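Give me the fold.
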Amino acid sequence: MLNQFSRTELLLGKSGMERLENSRVAVFGIGGVGGYVCEALVRSGIGSFDLIDDDRVCLTNLNRQIIATRKTVGKYKVDVMEERIHEINPAAKVTTHKCFFLPENASDFPFDQYDYVVDAIDTITAKIELVLQCQKMGVPIISSMGAGNKLDASAFRVADIYKTKMDPLARVMRRELKKRGVKELKVVYSEEKPIRPYEDMAISCRTHCICPPGTERHCTDRRDIPGSTAFVPSVAGLIIAGEVIKDIVNR
């Protein structure tokens, strides 16, 4: 019977679509990369989502995040993404977590119930803990490396973490994962040399922070505030979504 996934079913078949519908994917980080991951996954037929992010949509997100519009500024990202998912597929199941994932709260998440985990966060400690939790539970995971300070969307590659090059975040992850005995990790990374952003205080969040009152974490807490575009993080997110879909259908 004709439905919203009919064109996808022509490529993946009925059994493939059933696997997607019965899969539960957790996306950690609903930002420039994670938002596009969710967008492609729900349009591909994934049936259940866990969305994890403590952040709200900021005015500066409008240049790159698919959930960011003038109407959503100030709203929790997981709430906006949940609404968008249901507008695309009302039958999708969505569980939201308004929190920042850390080793301290890792036990709050049902990793044993996830069919796949997407790491779209940018904190080293949290990324490592995600990998360790997935390894312990035997859950497939794919991690996004650095998408900030880049302009070449064609430079992204899919590889094992130990075969990456150029990406500073991947370099740190390689070192830390090796210490912990992690032998492999699928990642999406860029071979483009990062660009040093302009230091213009007139447009800097450091001197013009507009985060809503009550926001626990601020981008100004970072040592460097990265520049970004509409076309780089989105490509990373779509590549990740493609890997998730292929892995689930072919398992």
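The mean pLDDT is 93.
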